[in-house]
Amino acid sequence: MTDRPRVLYITGWLRSGSTLVGNVLNELPGVVHAGELHYLWQNGVLRAGTNSVCGCGEQVRACSLWSAVLASTGEDDLTALARRMTAAQRRLLRTRHTRARLAELRPGGAAPAPVTAVLDRMAGLYRELAARGGERLVVDGSKYPAEAAALLGRDDLDVRVLHVVRDPRATALSYHRSKQYIDPMSPAASTAYWTAFNLASERVGAAAGGRYLRVRHEDLARRPAEVIGQVMEFAGLDDPSPVAAGGTVLLGPNHTVTGNPDRLTHGAVTIRPDERWRTELPSRHTLTATALAFPLLARYGYPVRAAGRPTPIGKESLRWTSD
């Protein structure tokens, strides 16, 4: 069993491409994409959330990988454990808790016992995944900045934080209509969350130093081999990129615990831009999202007046901190 698993923790707002990144990396030897591991307890064990089937097609508790990982907890009553974990996550690891978790990383700081207890469980899961195929890297797409901040303080884990950003108007369109696995959300609500999650992720990046990388969804879609290569280098993987010329990647089965249903797609997949928001998002919603996200648009290289024009590829859009 790996004593100090390497973990790539993906953060940022939802609908930004974390599932795609994780599934591509999952094609490399010694890499396991766990999906949104934060929801193992709620969706996988309690089956209280949506989209709770493992990426292999089985229910999580029936999956060969996850049944073994859960058995390793040594708990006879997994339901009781899952209820304790979900309660602790809500109480300690929401985005609003990012500042508190970051404060515990400063000299003289220390995580309180309840936080340590949750992190001990998470570290145990990472160790089990590392021992069951993820010996080189475990990818966790949970996207909770407070969780990422807390994990940075663990000496028994090698944690790297990948911050994925997508144009807020594209995420507003994704939430505009109800889907089987997510409820609809107004552009105002979606963009408010977008702002909060990305600002919190930036604070985590400031604390993480060289263990933080930010990429844009749009650059991933338009230069997939290059951006995936940068992510691989950041994560300590020196393999050839699994993305072929033209942006095609061959995806096999995975054991993602939850996430975008696209994680269930196998076979040849071509990564390409999706900017339907330019024509499909109503003008008033575009204006709402633009106005609310305005302070961050320029920072991430998104034009304010973008109707009908593709998002430009910026050299500064992919950032790897080194200090």
UniProtKB/TrEMBL annotation:
Recorded superkingdom: Bacteria
GO biological process terms on file: N-acetylglucosamine metabolic process; sulfur compound metabolic process
Molecular functions per Gene Ontology: N-acetylglucosamine 6-O-sulfotransferase activity
Pfam families: Sulfotransfer_3
UniProt cross-references to PANTHER family, sorted A to Z: CARBOHYDRATE SULFOTRANSFERASE (PTHR10704), LD35051P-RELATED (PTHR10704:SF44)
Protein name per Swiss-Prot or TrEMBL: Sulfotransferase
Organism listed in the record: Sphaerisporangium melleum
